[in-house]
Specification:
Elements lengths: L1 H4 L5 H12 L3 H14 L4 H13 L3 H14 L4 H13 L3 H14 L4 H13 L3 H14 L4 H13 L3 H14 L4 H13 L3 H14 L4 H13 L3 H11 L4 H11 L3 H14 L5 H14 L16 E4 L1 H4 L4 H12 L10 E6 L10 H20 L6 H4 L6 E16 L9 E8 L12 E4 L14 E4 L5 E6 L3 E4 L8 E9 L11
Antiparallel strand pairs: 1-7, 2-3, 3-9, 4-7, 4-9, 5-6, 5-8
Protein name: Tetratricopeptide TPR_2 repeat protein
Pfam families: 2OG-FeII_Oxy_5, TPR_1, TPR_11
InterPro entries: CHP02466, TMTC_O-mannosyl-trnsfr, TPR-like_helical_dom_sf, TPR_rpt
């Protein structure tokens, strides 16, 4: 029996299997591999081919089993460990995937693709320092890997290191000039710096290479609508089919005062699906108040009822160590500034603050998550999608600090890609000429939306140091200017259901 189980297929039997695999006939290759394994159960190449075929068919669990069987027969195959890592990653087994990539590297130290994939895995976990280190190691082995330069750029941008990210994207383009994704991401990062002329040029470069490129179309549309060229923006949004393109198109119709077209599309959307787009909720509520009709969109019809305020004991206690650490890291960490036009006499950080390595930011992120859970509990049972479809996994799509000095304020705006938005207050001016200076004001009108009247309600909160304010992302909000020479410092953030892009938060 032992001799029978170790019997190997002939080249004549294996070659048709390889032909099927190489010609992309994966289902047929998988079936033939299974048939041959019935006769030759201890044949490495059959397990390996079956794994590759199942992987290509999206049957990742089966691929994992096949790769594992192949590794029992030949445990020192770096490519096999690498493929196993990809399969593990596809089913969300992160630690197993990382272990497989590291095993591939241990066997073949110059396996730059394994370093790159490990970096991507670490980046998705928010371990940006480790991700960057792996990307740099991969590039030290193969500096001509355009994808490696691109991935490094994405991690550096998440860290708020915009100049370094731009260099990485440019290097990716130097290696592969037709890299449309790199041109588009370069444009986004230049936009973050406030360099709109070069940003638009990069978007146009991406679209010249791929007219259907989703991000480049979206970014170009965003530029046009910020320039109030609403009718020009709509076709780009429609070509992008990306993220909140439909809401953005609706925004353009509304801002262009094409109210009939707006209402027709709104009615179609209301009938066709769940009311889970905060940006569309903003538009629907504004239209309803503007024209004195019932708001048909049930994301959160009365956002004022869902504004939440609480003290965070770890920050509001006298001589809070965490508060001191946060203020110190804001002052001293190497975080680039993000330029945006709605902030006056102030500074906003780039990148995603809660993905940075500083212990203070990580500690605050966990405290904020606790408050999100309290928020959900407080409003449990509310008959609106804000609460009924509340994110099960708490993912910060964006987080940043805002430092304002005398005269500082933010214009009324919304966080278009948020679900719940909020801020934690670390410093507030106390020397004020009027009580409302520096307050957080919220409402249903802003951004120069067209008004038929001025009866749009507003509310306000005067937060204390150490307090958190949470609110539906559909609400407009602004900072009331203050005259004090003291700084006003907060850390703001957005929460959104997992899997939604995090690259489009502006304020």
């Amino acid at each position: 029996m032992a001799n029978q189980s170790n019997k190997q297929p002939s080249q004549h039997e294996v070659q048709p299997l390889l032909n099927l695999l190489n010609s992309g006939q994966l289902a047929n290759a998988a079936n033939m591999a299974k048939s041959l394994l019935g006769r030759y159960p201890n044949t490495f190449i059959l397990h390996n081919v079956l794994g590759i075929a199942l992987d290509g068919l999206g049957q990742y669990e089966g691929a994992i089993n096949s790769y594992r069987s192949a590794l029992k027969l030949q445990p020192n195959m770096p490519d096999l460990h690498f493929n196993l890592g990809i399969a593990f990653s596809n089913v969300g087994q992160v630690s197993e995937a990382a272990a497989s990539y590291r095993k591939a590297i241990a066997i073949q130290p110059k396996f730059f693709e394994a370093y790159g994939n490990l970096g991507t895995l670490l980046q998705k976990q928010g371990k940006l320092e480790e991700a960057v280190a792996n990307y740099r190691k991969a590039l030290s082995i193969n500096p001509q890997d355009a994808r490696g330069h691109f991935n490094l750029g994405t991690a550096l941008r998440d860290q708020g290191k915009l100049e370094e990210a731009i260099k990485s994207y440019r290097q990716a383009i130097a290696v592969f000039p037709n890299y449309a994704d790199a041109h588009s991401n370069l444009g986004e990062t230049l936009r973050d710096q406030g360099n709109m002329q070069e940003a638009v040029s990069s978007y146009q470069d991406a679209l010249a290479l791929n007219p259907k490129h989703q991000s480049a179309n979206y970014n170009m549309a965003e530029f046009l609508y910020l320039a109030k060229r609403f009718d020009e923006a709509i076709p780009y949004f429609e070509r992008s089919q990306l993220d909140d393109w439909q809401e953005r198109s609706m925004y353009c119709l509304y801002k262009a005062e094409r109210f009939d077209a707006f209402k027709t599309k709104l009615d179609q959307i209301v009938k066709s699906g769940p009311h889970t787009a905060p940006f569309l909720a903003t538009l629907s509520t504004h239209y309803a108040i503007n024209f004195g009709v019932e708001d048909p969109y049930n994301f959160c019809k009365n956002g004022f009822d869902f504004v939440y305020r609480a003290a965070i004991p770890e920050l509001s206690a006298p001589n809070s160590a965490l508060l001191k650490a946060l203020l110190n890291d804001i002052d001293n960490a190497a975080i680039a500034e993000r330029v945006q036009g709605m902030l006056h006499n102030g500074q906003q950080s780039a990148g995603n603050l809660f993905k940075r390595p500083e212990a203070s930011f990580n500690a605050l992120a966990e405290l904020v998550k606790k408050e999100f859970r309290n928020y959900h509990q407080q409003f449990a049972g509310a008959d609106c999608e804000l609460i009924k479809s509340f994110p099960e996994e708490l993912e910060f799509t964006s987080s940043w600090y805002v430092k304002m000095r005398q005269g500082g304020h933010l214009d009324a705006h919304i966080h278009e890609i948020g679900w719940i938005s909020g801020a934690v207050y670390l410093a507030m001016p106390s020397d004020k000429q009027s009580p409302e200076e520096g307050a957080f004001e919220y409402g249903v009108h802003g951004d120069h939306y067209p008004q038929k009247h001025h009866n749009f309600p507003v509310g306000a909160v005067m937060p204390n140091v150490g307090e958190i304010v949470l609110f539906p992302s559909s609400l407009f909000h602004r900072t009331i200017p203050f005259t004090s020479s003291e700084e006003r410092i907060c850390i703001a953030f957005d929460l959104r259901p997992s899997g939604v892009s995090a690259t489009r938060s502006h304020y």
